[in-house]
Amino acid sequence: GRIHPARIEKVVAEAREEVERIIWEEGQQAAAAAGVTALHPELIRLLGRLKFRTSYGQNQLHHAVEVAWLAGMIAAELGADVRIARMGGLLHDIGKAVDHQVEGTHALIGAELARRYGAPPKVVNCIASHHHEVPQECIEAVIVEAADAISGARPGARRETLEMYLKRIQDLENMARSYPGVAECYAIQAGREIRIIVKPEEVDDLAIIRMSREIARKIEETMQYPGQIKVTVIRETRAVEIAR
Q1: Where are the domains of the chain?
Q2: pTM
Q3: Hey, which CATH number is domain 5-153, 3.90.190.20, 1.10.3720.10, 1.10.3210.10, 3.40.50.1820?
């Protein structure tokens, strides 16, 4: 009934080899999916390690590939360097593969790794500056930051706690109800839209335009939320007559 220590060591070694194989294959597949070539093997291996890392429930390897796609599309539209934008997007969080082992922020750690393994200077700046820890020196760095924000903020990308979700919904509805003339309000689409129904005898057509702008501005100033929130104010007049 005993397990020999040598057997334990053998199984551990086999498991380690299997994980390393998965890491290497995932890194290669991610680079191919993002259309990024000529990466140093160590960067590919570090990229593959992101498969086992999540942030707010979002898989970091999938996030890296998504940012690379978005950055490439934005760069193409703006006439920037698509290759630099894609590589910067793919590697922007590479520091998260080792930030539990190395002291410092993942952006600066990732920039140092990219510099060490021969990434172009613009790509290094994209990585180092995507959280504004160093100045952005090229348009591609701005593009990578924007693509990172889009990927993280899109609906369903990251997990929220139930308490935070309910609080945002409640705060939205309470904010709308604080305006005079509001009859009902409903936060819909997981808090990404607020629909406000006003009393037509108290609020006219011009006032609902002003109200929607004021509420949108107040949300921007007082609340924190991913993405954007649509504010819709509805004024409806009904005429009812009974034929006897």
Answers
A1: 5-153, 162-234
A2: 0.67
A3: 1.10.3210.10
